[in-house]
Amino acid sequence: MILTNQDVFELTAFRRKLHQHPEISNEEEKTAKEVVSFLADSRPDQVLTGLGGHGVAAVYDSGEAGPTVMFRSELDALPIHELTGVEHSSLVPGKSHMCGHDGHTAILAALGRLFGRERPGRGRIVLMFQPAEETGDGAAGVVADPRFGEIAPDFAFSLHNLPGVPFGEVRLKDGVVNCASRGMRIVLEGMTAHSSMPETGISPMLAVSELMPALPGLGRGTFGDDDFCMITVTHASMGEAVFGVAPGRAEVRATLRTRRDDNMASLCAAAEGLVARTAAAHQLSCEIDYHEIFVASVNAPEAVEHLRRALDEEGVRHNEEALPMRASEDFGLFGHSAKSAMFFLGAGERHPALHNPDYDFPDDLIQIGARVFMRAARNLLG
C-alpha cells in the first residue's frame, strides 16, 4: 500500500499548515486538534486526547491477537523567530517549527491514512503524537497518564530528520543514540549593599567566578566512553543592571550530560557537592533545582533489526555514522517498557541545521519516512 499523489499533496498542505501555526511545548492545544481532525477520515478505532498534556494517540486495531506497535512524533515548536522567507512561514512571531516536528507529525498522519484503508493483519498500531518534546516533559507526562496503560506498546519506533546527512539516507544503530541530560539551576544568596560600601554586604561574585570553570571541570572521559559525562555552563547572572548596588544574589545554569543514565546521579551529586562547598566558603546560601530532564535514548537490538529490514526492503541507504549523539531526545523513556528504536533521516548535507531560524522541514521526506515505518509495521503485524 502506497500513498497516492493526492495523499502527498494533502499531507504536504497539512504539514505546512502546522508550520504556519506553531505552538511551543505544553501549549499544543490547537495543533492536537488539527491532528485529530486530519485523522478523522481514517476512522481510528480509538482516539485518546489530552495525554500527558496535549498528546494524542490514534489506535488502529486489527481485532486479532498480536503485539501493539507504536510510532511516535512530536507536536511542539520552538521559541525561535523564523527567517526562512518561505510562503508557509510561521504566522506567530517568535515561534516556529525549527526542528521539523511538523514534518514528523505529517509522516505519522500518512500512516493513519494508510491504516485507515487497511488495518494491520494482527495486533494494534498506535500513532502517538507527543507533546513537549523540547522540554523533556512530554514522554514522562504521557507515560504517567493512567490511560497510557490501555495502549502500552510492545514495540516503539520514532525518527528525527537530520541535516548534515545526505538527503534520504538513514543513520541507525543499536545501543545509546542520544545522551541523558538535565538542566541544573543554581541560586546563590548573600546580602546586597551600596556599591560604595561593598564590604557591608555578601557578594556572590567570587563564588560565581569559581563555579564557571569548576563545573565543566567535573566532566570526564571521551564521548566514545560509556562513562563519558560533561557539564556546560549556559547562563550566569548577578544582581541588578545598575551601578549603585553591590549584588547579593546570583544565578548560574548548566546542562549536565551523560552517555548512560546510571552516571547521571553521580554527576549530579558531584555538582551539588561542589556548589555547596563553594557557597559555604563565601558565606552564601544556595538552592538547586532541575529542569528539562531527558533520559538516554537506547535502541533495542531487536527493534533496530526490524528497522534495518524495512530500510533494506525499501532501498533506503543506511549506516551508523554520526551515532551516538551528544544531544538529547525525549524518546528514551518509551524504551523502559517497550522494545524501542529511533532512526535519523537525512535532510541534506547542506540543509540548515536544526533550531536555526532558516530551517524548514523538507516535504519530500514525508514519503520516505512513511514508507519505512509502514514496511516495519507490515513486517511485524502483516
Automatic annotation (TrEMBL):
InterPro entries: Amidohydrolase (IPR017439), Bact_exopeptidase_dim_dom (IPR036264), Peptidase_M20 (IPR002933), Peptidase_M20_dimer (IPR011650)
Keyword tags: Hydrolase, Manganese, Metal-binding
Residue numbers binding Mn(2+): C99, H101, E134, H160, H355
Cofactor note: The Mn(2+) ion enhances activity.
Signal peptide (UniProt feature, chain positions): none
UniProt domain Peptidase M20 dimerisation: residue ranges: 182-279
UniProt protein name: Amidohydrolase
The species this protein was found in: Pseudaminobacter soli (ex Zhang et al. 2022)
The organism's taxonomic lineage, starting at the top: Bacteria, Pseudomonadati, Pseudomonadota, Alphaproteobacteria, Hyphomicrobiales
